[in-house]
Design brief:
Number of helices: 5
CATH topology: Nitrilase/N-carbamoyl-D-aminoacid amidohydrolase
Number of domains: 1
Helix content: 10-25%
CATH architecture: 4-Layer Sandwich
Distance between the termini: 49 Å
CATH superfamily: Carbon-nitrogen hydrolase
Strand order of the largest sheet: 5-4-3-2-1-15
Number of strands: 15
Shape: globular
CATH class: Alpha Beta
Radius of gyration: 18 Å
Structural class: alpha/beta
């Protein structure tokens, strides 16, 4: 079987209070990933600030920026210099509207399209609807020098429809930049959130015969303890490489995208789909 190897880099970082320092620090971490051989590099959700949505309705506009803007200019120059693809999740300002977005930059420094987070949570310590409009540009497949991939952001990871839509559109890798952790002093009655987080994303890999790369922030911020644990999984959900839960880490691993087809052909999940039977998926949720 012919191989299609690509090297993925994930930047598991701890943002500081300083908005500008976070940009410089992340540029340095991307350089480190590239030095390890990474060709496609993804930063965590809202890479440039602390996770401000754990507080409801604070003044957060100062953390926003346009696309193109300061972050994309800096990372475009770096991508062109190093010959790498970079996914940059940030707090996007578009006129008077704000989005939780990701800008993708190809290896020649060209700014590609922008994905805006479609599923927006609103729970204690995750008050995202107070800050972000729901994404209005649909799911995206970024066709880059090293492969075709989609980026889905944090809460999107719990929705199988999002993963399937991206896979059907041609994604070979699903990146999930994330800001998720434990609430200090709270024990969830339903079980271990981190285990569920890992399981659902590995399930997307299996169900869609696609590689998955999940990158989380790490460290304590207010009432949240972000659990890191970034990982890369192959097209059958096997974890190829896993980061720790306590500190910053540049996670780099080689994957073979050719196995998407071999696994998919073997299990037949795409071949045996029955779209004619799925109309109920578009119906409103039963009360």
């Amino acid at each position: 079987m012919k191989t299609r190897k690509v090297v993925i880099g994930l930047i598991q970082s701890t943002p500081a209070e300083d908005f500008f320092k976070n940009l410089e620090h992340s540029l340095a971490l991307v350089r480190k990933a590239a030095a390890k051989g990474a060709q496609i590099i993804c930063l965590p959700e809202l890479y440039r600030s602390r996770y401000f949505p754990q507080s409801d309705k604070v003044k957060a506009a100062k953390f926003s920026e346009t696309i193109p803007g300061e972050s994309t200019r800096a990372f475009s120059a770096l991508a062109r210099e190093l010959g790498v693809v970079i996914a940059v999740p940030l707090f996007e300002r578009d006129g008077a509207r704000f989005y939780n977005s990701v800008a993708v930059i190809d290896a020649d420094g060209k700014l590609l399209d922008t994905y805006r987070k479609i599923h927006i949570p609103h729970d204690p310590l995750f008050y995202e609807k107070s800050y972000f409009e729901p994404g209005n540009r649909g799911f995206k497949v970024f066709r880059t020098r090293y492969g075709n991939f989609s980026v889905l952001i944090c809460y999107d990871q719990w929705f199988p429809e999002a993963a399937r839509a991206c896979r059907l559109a041609g994604a070979e890798i699903l990146f999930y930049p994330t800001a998720i952790g434990f609430v200090r002093g709270y024990k969830a009655p339903e079980g271990d959130w981190r285990e569920a987080w890992t399981t659902i994303q590995r399930s997307h890999a299996i169900a869609n015969s696609v590689h998955v790369a999940a990158v989380n922030r790490v460290g304590g911020e207010g009432e949240l303890k972000f659990w890191g644990s970034s990982f890369i999984a192959d097209a059958f959900g096997n974890i190829v490489k896993l980061a720790g839960a306590q500190k910053e880490e540049v996670l780099v691993a080689t994957v073979d995208l050719a196995t998407n087809k071999s696994v998919g052909d073997g299990w037949g999940f795409m071949r045996n789909r029955r779209p004619d039977s799925y109309k109920s998926l578009l119906a409103p949720v039963a009360k």
